[in-house]
Amino acid sequence: MINIKSAYLNTRNQFLTLCSNLETEDYSVQPTEFVSPPKWHLAHTTWFFEQFVLKEFSSEYTIYNDDFAYLFNSYYNNAGERVLRPNRGLMTRPTVKEVYAYRNYVDSKMVVFLDSNPSKKALEIIELGINHEQQHQELFYYDIKYIFGNQPTFPTLKNSIALNDITQKQEFITIKEGVYQIGHNTTGFSFDNELGVHKTYLHQFKISNNLTTNAEYIAFIEAGGYSNFNLWHAEGWDFITKNNITAPLYWHKVKDTWHYYTLNGFKPVEPNKPVTHISMYEAYAYAEWKQMRLPTEFEWEIAAEHLNYGQLWEWTNSAYLPYPNFSKAPGALGEYNGKFMINQHVLRGASIATPENHSRKTYRNFFQADMRWLFSGIRLAQ
Amino acid sequence: MINIKSAYLNTRNQFLTLCSNLETEDYSVQPTEFVSPPKWHLAHTTWFFEQFVLKEFSSEYTIYNDDFAYLFNSYYNNAGERVLRPNRGLMTRPTVKEVYAYRNYVDSKMVVFLDSNPSKKALEIIELGINHEQQHQELFYYDIKYIFGNQPTFPTLKNSIALNDITQKQEFITIKEGVYQIGHNTTGFSFDNELGVHKTYLHQFKISNNLTTNAEYIAFIEAGGYSNFNLWHAEGWDFITKNNITAPLYWHKVKDTWHYYTLNGFKPVEPNKPVTHISMYEAYAYAEWKQMRLPTEFEWEIAAEHLNYGQLWEWTNSAYLPYPNFSKAPGALGEYNGKFMINQHVLRGASIATPENHSRKTYRNFFQADMRWLFSGIRLAQ
Amino acid sequence: MINIKSAYLNTRNQFLTLCSNLETEDYSVQPTEFVSPPKWHLAHTTWFFEQFVLKEFSSEYTIYNDDFAYLFNSYYNNAGERVLRPNRGLMTRPTVKEVYAYRNYVDSKMVVFLDSNPSKKALEIIELGINHEQQHQELFYYDIKYIFGNQPTFPTLKNSIALNDITQKQEFITIKEGVYQIGHNTTGFSFDNELGVHKTYLHQFKISNNLTTNAEYIAFIEAGGYSNFNLWHAEGWDFITKNNITAPLYWHKVKDTWHYYTLNGFKPVEPNKPVTHISMYEAYAYAEWKQMRLPTEFEWEIAAEHLNYGQLWEWTNSAYLPYPNFSKAPGALGEYNGKFMINQHVLRGASIATPENHSRKTYRNFFQADMRWLFSGIRLAQ
Amino acid sequence: MINIKSAYLNTRNQFLTLCSNLETEDYSVQPTEFVSPPKWHLAHTTWFFEQFVLKEFSSEYTIYNDDFAYLFNSYYNNAGERVLRPNRGLMTRPTVKEVYAYRNYVDSKMVVFLDSNPSKKALEIIELGINHEQQHQELFYYDIKYIFGNQPTFPTLKNSIALNDITQKQEFITIKEGVYQIGHNTTGFSFDNELGVHKTYLHQFKISNNLTTNAEYIAFIEAGGYSNFNLWHAEGWDFITKNNITAPLYWHKVKDTWHYYTLNGFKPVEPNKPVTHISMYEAYAYAEWKQMRLPTEFEWEIAAEHLNYGQLWEWTNSAYLPYPNFSKAPGALGEYNGKFMINQHVLRGASIATPENHSRKTYRNFFQADMRWLFSGIRLAQ
Ligand SMILES: [Fe+3]
Ligand SMILES: [Fe+3]
Ligand SMILES: [Fe+3]
Ligand SMILES: [Fe+3]
């Protein structure tokens, strides 16, 4: 099974590359509840393989450290008995060095296990674990940007990802009315939330080939978009009012010019790059201002092959809900997707932070409407 | 136009009947943010006719009191300049008597106006105003129950509404797969959110003829439903944990027996009545426990003619989103529905608190998932 | 014992006079935690006599209503078992009419009891109850001003109290260094917190004969007093910053002129009246700006006979702490004063809201530093 | 001026010794608002010498890094203009290594300056800076204990401080009534808050020679001290109720035995050591339970020579208020003490965390009543 072993090792090593320019101090902070420290991501993704693979399927496996199982479990509900609960951003111990040792230990055991002709069930969970680690690698980018972008000195992440200019002329593609097939067929990996090929009826619509640019978004700001409540959801208006939001996250006006923090530094906003770090509320208000709308996730999936996508996850106007015949796995792995299917919104596509080969046309990403730290973008429909 | 005049007067008088057993003190309190005092409902529905009908269409109309326009406008966004903002539950003035005088004034002007051959546009807005007032009459029931049900002395509302026992045997009706028509056609009144007859694809499903009863729900409680996190949305689990919720709203355990507050008094829970005052989270968890699910709003609409409904609004597993080609009216009336189309959930049917003739098969009611003070219920699908 | 009976009846009737111009709606609201609704004051002061006098000393007394004992007890700690806790501002029942009936019932029983040659112990508690009711009568003024002064329509209280102009020229009185006697001697009523005549050493000081006027305070505002953090306690600076405080409570700038709400209406600030509705923090900052200080409560007591006082309670720079040999009564009455002796500040004098004969030179009033709804004022010392 | 130079260097080096067993990760976290990360203490105390000594008095001095001046200034009020505000626990940069370089830079400049015959004014500020650094060294102990003591793995600080058993028999010393002298005379260093020798009148009192032990405090717990509201200030009762406090900070019941976290590890509570990490509220309630009281700070100062003290700061029943004729220094240094003189409480003595020679009989330490992370203790008076 040479294929999955190299996929495992590639993914595991990729995380070390992502972290190669961090200082020890950068690994441990948690500036807000939805951000996790890099150290936690490194340990938690390791714990996944220990908990669901080695502990389940490898009879001679010895838990590295009972504390780690407790500290890096994200499924708090069945956590053991302790005097104190872990708080991700306040754990100075184990140290970064100790977490890397934990990774090495689990990796060495996983290599032995992968060489031992694992069962089909085990291989499925390993594949899930690889995809899980890739998701945390994407979150790592969101989180380190938040960690750096909220410090007064704006540190940078050397050799980091950057968006490209949008160079193609904007066009609206027309898709005809009819019954369409939606969802992932059973070849290749997918998450449970995209499973179940099924039919949906779409009415005719048009969809932009490109994402919205910073220049277009600045026009919205300058037209008073953030102070015209008619453009906003009631809840979105409350959100921007209560939080004094007047521009995307990481934007600051310096001497009348919009600047933003990027992982490569603080600089004037670049007009031809796609606008990012906007909430679902802002995406919606922008579309209202353009007298258009956001596509549904079904429209997006059917139109995908005609679209320029992959730089930013695209807010759709679809709530994250189960497909017909959705069923979740038993036990802890069943907590993966189903329990989040309320008050979240589907994003389609992929972003520059997404690991290679991690996304696909049927991939359903999802976040709450007020999240802005992800690499999100806007595509118009009508 | 005798028809709309009598509809107007009937609806307006109906509110007086609803309030006929209140004490003056009951009109003014606001125990929580989502509850409005009865006095506010009485004045706000009056302001609707003053603002959108008389002020717009009746040239000789004189505003009753500029303060009232400011105080009873629920569309805060364009409110005028004042030293202080109104706070619904803390306004002891105008008094109840003054609010009734305001109603009389507006009603007398409306009668004159209705007799003066109003334009089609004006008649449409009056019809909307009547439906608006009916919605507030339903909210009045939710609110007065909350006002009374959270006082230690549990006051009652004389001659009030009550649920009936469910007497029919439970069956599951099967609906075949196919393309179906959804939405309101243009005959008769409807809200903008249900407009636009359009097609949707439904896969085959089964749906219960009856609502879930208190006895069935107590079985869920006694089976530990409120302490098994696997049954809950992650957000629902946080909600019940943070708020120590272990039963529907208004339920209290007294000497090992579940009791509840009803508008007719505090009493042991009646087993054969449909369970109510549960959040969307609880409806979902109950369905999970039964290894079934809630229907979508589209499934409900297609199955409606086969169902026993009308006692309680039924949580569906559909997010409140625009229909294809949804468009909102310009100006303040456009704020009626569209701006709420995020993070809310559709309920279908009607309740014992719904004014006569106010609901229909295509009616889309909607609330946030954590709301429990409405007359909500559970219907299972699979 | 004719004297205490007439004191009892006078005090009880006085509360009816205070409330004679209220509307029913005004009795029940609680706009913020530290404000109690008038209805609650009326019932709570009645409960005091029922609980501590009639129930204790009158063998044939029948509790008027067990609910009332529960609802109007301010000593929550020993409250009985109920399904729900009372929330002062949300109880629409008992009605105002029922509360007045409760007062009548208790008063009629008290008259019989007072005529029955009560024990010395009982008489002492009745005297305490009279003083307790007077304190609540003063609180009534603070509370009704807050209730009216936070409504957009600024209702007035007909025939209400008003401050007088300060007409005497300001002088600073000098008091010599030495050992002085502080505290109440045993003749006449006093609270336990002022008991225990004892010695204190005072260094020489000067104290103003007059209170600070609105004109003087406006000079402080216009000199930027609210934006110069050097004048403020660190905690005071946080308080005004977080709450956007730039003037006394009830002040509003209308077209460049300071106005304020008084119980007699909304009007331009009157320059020669003493400034009121300022927190301890503001009093301190004003004194700092004048390069003076507030007196201690001991300085105040020794200088009192030379001062013009009685319009407003005067913030001193003394924390509310026990006198040497302070001891509290056993049981619930012991909760009266001692348990508040931390993080509160002594005010001396009396105010226009204080019932006649209620205050004296040794009286120790006390509030938290951030309270502004009381009738507080500023006197300088150096 | 060899004396102050060696005092400077000793104090500065002492901080390196305190930190010698920390991991890099331990330097940067801020688990709660009142705790500062060790890195911040190290930089802030350095900034003090840069800002108030080198920048003021050394003409050729070059600021090490403008960012540091902004980041490590605790006097936020006059902070410069930045896009973002520093947040002590979330700054991963500058790194620990960079902060130590900053210390070295400032120390080398200070040595040159100290050798250059500084003015008397400069020497006074250096002496203040040394005492300031000593205060932060004590805070370092409180903070690192909080950082470690709230992690589930309970890390230890090697070679750390520990309390001693109380071995002497308890006695109550009697002090006679009379006029006494309080405050620091002008020989030797003191803070401005203890200056101004003045007279105070003390009534006769008794004071314990010893601090309260853990065994004595456990008796209080076991007698239900934490559930008898009569023993508590109203505010203290709210504090323990809202925060579920049933024992001192760092105490945990494991299998029916009280354990606590100490810097040397998690272990059963040692009965003969003095109880610590109790709030002012708990100290007061304990004294009430013993039917005694806490001494005032004046009683303590007069009795000090008869007392066994120095292990723990002792809560007095005195509010932190200015002495007669207290005056604060102009400018930023004037912010040192005066602005905290409200709602804080005086502690007298010293603790095992206090640097050598830092305390004295007249030293006035002060904290809010709810603070428990300091090394506080209880001494009874009557
Ligand atoms: Fe995960
Ligand atoms: Fe409305
Ligand atoms: Fe009272
Ligand atoms: Fe400092």
Automatic annotation (TrEMBL), chains A, B, C, D:
Identify the residues that the record assigns to the DinB-like domain, covering every copy: 10-138
One Gene Ontology BP term is: ergothioneine biosynthetic process
Species lineage: Bacteria, Pseudomonadati, Bacteroidota, Flavobacteriia, Flavobacteriales
Among Pfam families, the record links this protein to: DinB_2, FGE-sulfatase
User: Would the keyword Hydrolase turn up in this protein's UniProt record?
Assistant: no
**Descriptive protein name:** Ergothioneine biosynthesis protein EgtB
**What PANTHER family is this protein classified in?**
HERCYNINE OXYGENASE, SULFATASE MODIFYING FACTOR 1, 2
Checking SUPFAM superfamilies in the record gives:
C-type lectin-like, DinB/YfiT-like putative metalloenzymes
InterPro entries per record: CTDL_fold, DinB-like, DinB/YfiT-like, EgtB, Sulfatase_Mod_Factor_Kinase, SUMF_dom, SUMF_sf
Q: Which domain of life is it from?
A: Bacteria
- Sulfatase-modifying factor enzyme-like domain boundaries: 170-304
Q: Which UniProt keywords apply?
A: Iron, Oxidoreductase
| Pathway participation | Amino-acid biosynthesis; ergothioneine biosynthesis
